[in-house]
Amino acid sequence: MIRTRFAPSPTGFLHIGGARTALFSWAYARRHAGRFLLRIEDTDLVRSTPEAVQAILGGMQWLGLEHDEGPFYQTQRMDRYRAVIEQMLAAGSAYHCYMTPEELDHLREEQRAAGAKPRYDGRWRPEPGKTLPPPPAGRAPVVRFRNPTAGVVAWDDLVKGRIEIANAELDDLVIARADGAPTYNFCVVVDDWDMGITHVIRGDDHVNNTPRQINILQALGAEVPLYAHLSMILGDDGQKLSKRHGAVSVMQYDEQGYLPEAVLNYLARLGWSHGDDEIFSLQQFCEWFDLDHITASAAQFNTDKLNWLNAHYLKRAGTARLAELVRPRLQARGVNVGTIPSLTAIVDLYKERAGNLNELADMAEVFYIDLHPKAELLAKHLTAEALPVLGEFIDRLPEVAWEAAAIGGLIKDCVTRHGLKMPRLAMPLRVLLTGLEQTPSVDAVVALLPRATVLRRLAAGRDAALSAAGTS
RNA sequence: GUCCCCAUCGUCUAGAGGCCCAGGACACUACCCUUUCACGGUAGGUACCGGGGUUCGAAUCCCCGUGGGGACGCCA
Questions:
Q1: ipTM above threshold 0.85
Q2: pTM of the model
Q3: Does at least one atom of strand B sit less than 7 Å from the CB of A107?
């Protein structure tokens, strides 16, 4: 049974790179009818916060990436880590080191100055025939893992292929701090082992940790899982993702009006491919997903493409669902969402034209507020030529059947009788009724509003234009 | 500095020795559609980092170089 996990540390929100890692891990488990676990790596008490835990959980939920087991918290497994450390100490695969952080800094500086890789020199590492100095009184030791000195650690990375690291490159890493708290690389090993993780799918930045973790796993006699290291996601500008790059948290995509299925589809396609397929459902993704088609190189985020996908999914989304997603956005703006026209009717007419939910809200808003079209738009469209035909349209409006086809017929008839082209009347109507020059078919927009509102907005606009003409 | 990873259109990618004088998508340009703007449709331009090998044949395999990234914590 395949078991994968997503193991974020709760020091911030769920960012887009983490979301992709989670997605791939989740999909791999789904694809193989396995289990997907969520583990919160909160051993850094200083930087971990409950808010961050909530943010991560919230992000996962928004994306719909449900875990089968967990969330497990490392802070709740301390007893287990301590027991394993004791066991390793007893077995000789770990030892106490009394070197102070200051001494360590000195050593590293010297090594760096000499052009060498900074690393622990093994001075407290027990060796046959080696006499260790007596432990300094009153100094609490850290526990270090006794890393093998010879040979290589190698694994066949499911994304990058075979990777080999000489043990000579590795030093004896600290697995427990002076205060007894276990460190990251150690907790990961114990957790992956205890939780029966078969496939570790994680970010590229962990490649360097892998040989160390494999060595610990082997010292413990644990089975080594398979590893798949995903390359990182770069910002739109090709730079490393950071707070400066706008939307970094997945929840910011929600705020910006993206649909989760669009973000998911985009992320799925970023660094993974299935031939020429671009648009596919989550379910389809789960059926197709495999590690063989993951790109080994870093991928640059492309907002244009995400926007395209979002617009696509907006067109496909159910009207009722979209209306309920738009409603809170309108309410947040203080717009009193009325019942005529209904939000669903507006969304149904407009969803094909919106790039995101906020744009949809922009379009819907004009139907519920006290509208004041911009003066320059009025001046541009309520021309001397347009006013008479507008007048006739207003006069005949009370008689027309209140549905788009009949209204469209009336518009055409008015325009024809005045020897004008369609836009001459359509544009003033758009501007007067919505304050915008771009709308769907104008007869449909007219039909959406109550007859009284249309009459009021048109008459007010016409009268204002007439008096402006009169005074000038 | 040392170690590790990566390298096809502007971007995401297809490609696992001949199907590729390199395909798709986003973006871009033009045209069509049109009641405005989108949508949609059609067409177009743009790429195998460089150099050596291996081979009858290389975008695909090997080596070197160059460029980019990551790691070197009592952070995760």
A1: yes
A2: 0.93
A3: no
